Amino acid sequence: MAVTIRDVARASGVHISTVSRTFSAPHLVNPETRSRVLATAEQLGYRPNRAARALITGRTHNIGLIVADIANPFFPPLIKAAETHARRRDYHVFVADTDEDPIVESDLVQALAKQVDGILLCSPRMSDDQIEQLRREVPLVVINRMITGLPAVVMDVGQGAREAVRHLLGLGHRHLVYLAGPRGSWTNREIRRAAGATARTAGADLTVLGPNQPVEEAGAAAAEAVLATGATAVLAYNDLMAIGLLQALQDRGVDIPGQVSVVGIDDIAYSGLVRPRLTTVANPTAAAGRTAVDMLLQQGDDGATGQVTLRTDLIIRNSTGPGPYAPAVAIAAEVAAHVKE
Amino acid sequence: MAVTIRDVARASGVHISTVSRTFSAPHLVNPETRSRVLATAEQLGYRPNRAARALITGRTHNIGLIVADIANPFFPPLIKAAETHARRRDYHVFVADTDEDPIVESDLVQALAKQVDGILLCSPRMSDDQIEQLRREVPLVVINRMITGLPAVVMDVGQGAREAVRHLLGLGHRHLVYLAGPRGSWTNREIRRAAGATARTAGADLTVLGPNQPVEEAGAAAAEAVLATGATAVLAYNDLMAIGLLQALQDRGVDIPGQVSVVGIDDIAYSGLVRPRLTTVANPTAAAGRTAVDMLLQQGDDGATGQVTLRTDLIIRNSTGPGPYAPAVAIAAEVAAHVKE
DNA sequence: CTCCATTCGGCAAACGTTTGCAACAGCTTA
DNA sequence: TAAGCTGTTGCAAACGTTTGCCGAATGGAG
Fold this sequence. Notes:
Two copies of one chain form a homodimer. Chain A is α/β, with parallel strands linked by helices and about 350 residues long. Chain A is built from 14 helices and twelve strands. The first copy, chain A, folds into three domains: about 5-50, 434 Repressor (Amino-terminal Domain) (Orthogonal Bundle), CATH 1.10.260; about 60-155 and about 285-310, Rossmann fold (3-Layer(aba) Sandwich), CATH 3.40.50.2300; about 155-285 and about 315-340, 3-Layer(aba) Sandwich (Rossmann fold). Chain A is about 45% helix and about 15% strand. In chain A, the strands form two sheets. Chain A has a six-stranded parallel β-sheet, sandwiched between helices. Chain A has a six-stranded mixed β-sheet with strand order 7-6-8-9-10-12, sandwiched between helices. Chain A binds a DNA duplex (30 and 30 nucleotides) through helix 2 and helix 4.
């Protein structure tokens, strides 16, 4: 059916090894022969069978990318960056979605293991042990999780959370809520720890609500609980939850940021679209995708297992405002900002 | 390095063919032998090499799924549905993103061709000719495009556009704008044709603005042009553009739907989050993903090339309201709706 | 005790490539 | 003129499976 290296060899009167070399080591074959082979290959519509090649070379030129939920707008920019970057290096990226399920996650890694040269594990929900286990079957780079001895690229959400909390404290908030993310998320633990420590140091209260699925519905569902705490500011695990909460609070007649300030994390495309625009911690997702691809491709060479941490940035928009203990300067700044608009 | 069928055979004292059969045709091997083999395989951590298997069986148990832009929230639900459905049939889905570029699209199909049993081509930007060409290299199912002789599943946006236009006409709008999508999009042509015909029949005007990239920025950028036409209602190629337009108009102090009504298409998750909530045409994307997978997997058997059309639904929210020629009943209905809230 | 049917498992070829080795031609060098 | 390169090509084994074919073992029927 399909045209193979053998057909090309026959049609151009050379041995199959010559055809093979024409594609994989052109400098080893006579320019004249080469162009003849190339011509017949072109004419016959020959395409090298990458699977067969992989069988013998051991390199598939594919990369697996496993994410928790492709519908979460946090991931697509990362995926796109990784794909584009990999394509430049003649690699293809196979994306798969685990539905936030650690079992599916582990299955996927095993199924993909033989079809790819390595896997990018993005925000994994598995236990550290499981990941260590899988690592023996296939090269791994983990994104958004720190495991000793494993190559990883993480975005420094701890720093982002600290900045966000300081921003809220500076505005005069003294009782905060952290709307937690899913169980098993390393990011969630980091944020929680950083936010808690920062609040405590300043003598403020931080109530943790959760765990929650990282989706809008969960944010919306938490509205009552947030109000019940009496807190005046909320930091959410991600923008999706922050947006859900924002809308649910507004539906209850709560003024944002007048009565409650809300901060998200991720800076997804939609956080600038809701009203008020969401104050949030921007994550360098595209850079993370590219870095992870590079780390994976270099890994084969030496086996050095670096861990890269990427900076995050607090983006102040309109969902945060002065709290009950606001110093005069904060209020003045707020007024000035509004005038400027 | 990796443990192969041969290692298992040696360790359990049988021939490799017996091991092979244990996995691919269990009924042909003695239960006792089978469990022994299974046990050693388990113990050694053996996983069949799907690439090697594919080489001889000709079936990879992989499906390729090519989309224009994974960051467009229209696609993820389709991708997820296709993945879940495929996984049930022991298939894996490899997703790739073309960045709306027909050249990348064609390259991807060719690169994927040998590694998958078939490809789902979602909203392709290539020409019909190119697609026909590629079809000879690999089984194809096209989503959101109708090409004679090619298996396809399309969502009936024509019907949706007709309903949307009738809705606007019924509200008393007489001058509409269609904010067009990208060049090369079959969907775009369908909407344009259906909307144009419906408007014309009713004696209303329809101005077409475009082509545009199907993203928010393009919608926002079109705000001035829309206002310049003097139209009182807009149908956008997709929700992303509709949302961009919505925000840009509001930023200019235009009241939605008081002065201008806006209708999107797709019903992405965020169309219910913006204020006012977006009136839009819901597409059955999940069903489309599942159907396409089924068609692809059946294709091998007989080669029957059906074309499936899926219904769309107009969802009326708050971004549409009475126009300048509104009949009394429409206004009354509008008032009633507001009271009900 | 023989014959036949059935079940089980081994043998080896095949899938489409890559690659180390060897052969050969045409040179250059001494 | 022999020896030694260099550049080009062919040969054949290998990668990890699947599968058609055949022989061995078992058991029941006659």
